[in-house]
Amino acid sequence: MSMEMNSAGYGGGIEILLVEDNPGDVRLVKEAIAENKIKNDIYVVSDGEEALLFLRREGDYKDAPQPDLILLDLNLPKKSGRDVLEEVKSDPDLKRIPVVVLTTSDAERDILRSYDLHANCYVTKPVDMNQFVRVVNYIEDFWFSIVKLPPKD
Amino acid sequence: MNIDEQLVDESIWQTDGKWHTLVESAYNIIVIVDRKGVIQYINKKTKENIINTSIYDYMFPEYHEQVQESVGKVFETGRPEDFEIASASSRGQVKWYISRVGAIKLGDKVVSAVMIFTDITKRKEAEEILQIKNDAIESSINGIVFTDLKGNINYINHSLESMWDYCSDDEIIGRNIIELWEGRKRCLQVLNEMKDKGSWIGELVAKKKNSDLFDVQLSSSIIKNKNGKPMLMMFSFIDITENKQSERRLKQIMKELVRSNEELEQYAYIASHDLKEPLRTVISYLQLLEKRYKTKLDSAADEYIMYAVEGAKHMEQLIKDLLGYSQVGVNTREPQIVNSGIVLGRVLINLQDIINEADVIVTHDKMPEVYADDIQLGQVFQNLINNAIKFRKQTDPEIHISVKERDSEWIFAVKDNGIGIKNEYKDKIFDIFKRLHIKDEYAGTGVGLSVCKRIIEYYGGQIWLESEFGYGTTFYFTIPKK
User: Is B169 in CB contact (< 8 Å) with chain A?
Assistant: First the structure.
């Protein structure tokens, strides 16, 4: 799978924003991404407010790139993942960025609520580490090899 | 009969045609008797000839003395007497009469007595009905008030007196109905509505003699005469203090229930996320440790890791099951008509691998349509069948699902020929997290049967079991028809 195949057509690496407050999970996602053949740049923020600052290139994030994909946990300090999702999807500059909700919860109301807020997909973190790694790799493969992403500004 | 009497007969009653016609066409019964009561004349035709029979033969014995006395007085004084009697008609019905006895004189001598009977049976009956109605109103457990059209009280019954704590009706008659209630504005509104619509039904606050307040339900109406003219107003009160109190209590309980349900839901949510997350981290990192350091650790370390992972995974299953248990009845869908045969079929497909692996023969009756939630009914079947498979014996395990219809419910039975359950555990087995075996023998968290019980009871049914230790177990559960 080569870079040329992905529709983003962006010269640099593919950029993922991971919004995750659990350092254990951050590490696991990073490990998983490191194992995959696709090479991606991953940026990590640990709460909802930071995520929005990053996406809007405000505060410390003036030079932040616009990510190709957002991996979003739901239960976050300060602004929750739901708030982030809602703001991203109602912001004309951000709403095209695919958001993958990646969370521990398998509660029906979280799933419904996320799709109502236009999440692009909802994934429950598997308990088993090997499955966790596999799921992260599937997400990468799906969004960066199969799906046609919108061109970046 | 003497000459004088014969004279009377002939001269007045038989010879004078005019009088005769008048008397015979009279509405009343007119009888002439002698002093002893022997009938000499009657103005009506009778089936049998009653002339010369005694008048007393035609009235109930209890009146004889009174009538004899009156007749005696008439003969003595010549002045008329009145009395009231009852007699039986030729058809055996009781007839009431008032009667006036007058003297028939020849000169100064009273020679006969004329009795004029007026039938008052209808009036008597009407009076009796009226009396019954009166008694009914007086003894009604409803407090009843009659007022004029301005609301001035002219009658109250006994119940009203005691409901409002008055000692006698004198204290209240003549006062205005408004004084019985709390809130003048509301009372005037009720009276106005009553005048507009002719009646009013609703709840009011009443005020006792000592100004204590209590809740009443009032049904009131305007009573009109035959011509439709309003005559008076009737108010009928029921004391609903107790109903009101229990209604308030119920509302309070409902409120608490809703709150505790919301809390439960919140706990369940916390369990599904906040408890699971650290657990997942534990498991993942133990596994990562295993993966990355496999060659650098010895076999004992591998074993420790295995136990730690297993323990954490079991904990995760417990959380999941507890969550499932707590969610029964929360956000449940409305029950519908479901074909339990289709539900069971789906469950058997789900369990296909386990059934094949355990080599169990599963059979079932023709299943009915029931009123339930298909997913939850499926859960009950699945847990019970799973249970039966888990606790099978090694030789020829069989499971049969049967159903019986009763008037108000269906009784389902899941019967196995497995290891059975000792009598002392029959009830305990439904307790949450109750396990009868160590984990190595039979896997599971001990939530399955508790979930079954919770689901079945949620739909108003019951679940129980019969078992012979060593020979098999039958689980029964009922589903009420709608």
Answer: no
Q: Enter the tokens of residue B231.
A: 């005559």
What is the distance between the alpha carbons of residues A43 and A72, in angstroms, rounded to a whole number?
Answer: 12
Q: Do A104 and B280 count as a contact with CB atoms less than 8 A apart?
A: yes
User: DSSP letter string over A85-100?
Assistant: HHHHHT-TTTTTS-EE
CB burial string A5-20: b at 16+ within 10 A, e below: ebebebeeebbbbbbb
Tell me how far apart the alpha carbons of residues B172 and B164 are, in angstroms, rounded to a whole number: 10
Distance of CA A152 to the CA centre of its chain: 16
What confidence tens digit (pLDDT) does each residue in B284-310 have?
888 888 888 877 888 888 888 888 888
The whole-number pLDDT of residue A146 equals 87
Q: Torsion angle, CA of B123/B127/B130/B131, rounded to 10 degrees?
A: -170
Q: What is the CA radius of gyration of chain A?
A: 14
Whether the Cβ atoms of residue A137 and residue A108 lie closer than 8 Å to each other: no
Closest Cα in chain A to B281: A24
Q: Is B288 on the interface with A (CB under 8 A)?
A: yes
What is the pTM (predicted TM-score) of this model?
0.52
| Chosen from A22, A29, A80, A104 to mutate, greatest number of chain B CBs within 10 A | A104
Cross-chain CB nearest to A75 (options B273, B288, B316): B273
In 3D space, the residue among B163, B142, B155 whose CA is nearest the CA of residue B214 turns out to be B163
CA dist B331 → A104, A106, B104, B263, B335 (Å):
21, 15, 98, 13, 12
Please state the rounded mean pLDDT for residues B189-208.
91
Whole-number pLDDT of residue B269: 72
CB contact under 8 A, B284 and A132: yes
Residues B474/B467, Cβ–Cβ less than 8 Å: yes
Residue B76: which residues within 8 A CB-CB, separation 6 or more? B110
